[in-house]
Amino acid sequence: MTIRIGVIGVGMIGQDHIRRLTTVLAGSSVVAVADADAERAREVSTGISGCVAVDAHELIRSDNVDAIIVTSWGETHAEYVLAALSASKPVFCEKPLATTQEDCRRIVAAEVAIGRRLVQVGFMRRYDDEFRALHGVVSTATIGEPLLMHCAHRVGSAPGLVTAQMVNDVAVHEIDTIRWMFGEEIVEAQAFTPRHNPNSPEDLADPLMILLGTESGILADIEVSANGAYGYDIRGEVVAQSGTAALPEHETIVVKRAGQFAGDVPVDWRKRFARAYDTELQEWVDRLAAGLDSNGPSSWDGLAAAATTDAVHEALRTGGAVAVHLPEKPELYC
Ligand code: NAP
User: Fold this and answer.
1) Side-by-side strand order, sheet with 28-34
2) How far is CA 158 from CA 151, 161, 218, 225, 268, in A?
3) So what's the pLDDT on residue 314?
4) Torsion of CA 26, 2, 6, 19, to 10 degrees
5) Maximum Cα–Cα distance for the chain, whole Å?
């Protein structure tokens, strides 16, 4: 069965997802696109056989569309995800699920009322081979009980980035990774702004250090750097009772020469996570084709991420430790 997909928001990542669905992955076709910029939607549709450009809500309602991908701006996600749920259609929504906790809660409530996991959120770290290998070591208790995790999300250069995005768009990936790695909720957040990087605008909190505590007392730190100048570097190390496990250097040939060794650092997130995005969407399509609901990052994960980023912002404002508040987890997500 070929899954007929409609894509809402055909900007940078929307077009990249369309490219992978139409040229890399199997089992789906892109049959409709929508965008606030109708001309952009029309241009994108002309490059895809059998694809039409339509209004976003028409796309969601269309009998020709089996499943929806939402890659418009974050502020518009809740509207489209709720509309997809009203139509009882599977929807893959790029992060964030919504820009407020209140909207995330509305989505969770709507999905719980349907009683099916129709929503998947684009936390693609969970599909990265290296993160999956690290998760495997932790979940099989190879190194015993986890105690600490050190994470770093270093961006080579990020012109125009503002401090809110350091949390909501950058650290949010580590926030989801930490919850997934340990299968626990984050219960407390602190944030620190150390000595400022002279490469960055004065009003950008760069670097930013975030400290998160989980339900069982695991402590995880996240270093977010926006202008590290040497490339896109994602680091993760779990410290456990009998050993440690760390992500490797990403896919590089190590050259040893003249008493030194060297390798490549990925230039940006597209290169670092290219295969993770492929795996993420292929697994989503495969499950739909098999008649199964999503088992990927859920609406609950979207809500938990939003609750944690809100706590980090509060910690930045107050300078203290802030509790992360979540409602009781519905059975659907257990
Ligand atoms: P982008 O290039 O600006 O694309 C967004 C597109 O959505 C634009 O074409 C925009 O049109 C359109 N749009 C805006 N409002 C809309 C509406 N109400 N209805 C339909 N279309 C609308 O942004 P992007 O970088 O692709 O990011 C899109 C989303 O993906 C964001 O939520 C972002 O956080 C997420 N993202 C996730 C990852 C990841 O690692 N998982 C990576 C990149 C992006 P206009 O330009 O005319 O406003």
Assistant:
1) 52-53, 28-34, 3-8, 67-70, 91-93, 119-121
2) 19, 6, 31, 9, 10
3) 98
4) 20
5) 65
Confidence at residue 124, expressed as pLDDT on a 0 to 100 scale: 98
Q: What pLDDT sits at residue 233? A: 98
Q: Which distant-in-sequence residues (6+ apart) come within 8 Å of 298 by Cβ?
A: 117, 119, 120, 121, 333
Q: Which residues of the chain have pLDDT under 70?
A: none
Instruction: Let me know: does 14 contact 77? Beta carbons within 8 Å.
Output: no
> Ligand 1 centre and the CA of 10: distance in Å?
7
Q: Which residues line ligand 1 (CB under 6 A)?
A: 8-14, 34-37, 40, 56, 71-74, 76, 94-95, 122, 124, 169, 269
pLDDT the model gives residue 245: 98
The two three-digit tokens of residue 85, written as one number: 């749920």
Pairing of strands 3-8, 67-70: parallel
Task: Report the alpha-carbon distance of residue 314 to residue 96 in Å, rounded.
Answer: 19
- How far, in Å, is the centroid of ligand 1 from the Cα of 143? 40
What is the phi/psi pair of residue 97, to 5°? -60, -45
pTM of the predicted protein model: 0.97
Q: Residue 123 CA: which ligand 1 atom is closest? A: 41
For 300, the token pair is 């609950």
pLDDT tens by residue, 144-199: 999 999 999 999 999 999 999 999 999 999 999 999 999 999 999 999 999 999 99
72 CA to centre of ligand 1 in angstroms: 4
The residues, any chain, with a CB within 8 Å of residue 141's CB and separated by 6 or more, are none
Q: What is the pLDDT of residue 90?
A: 98
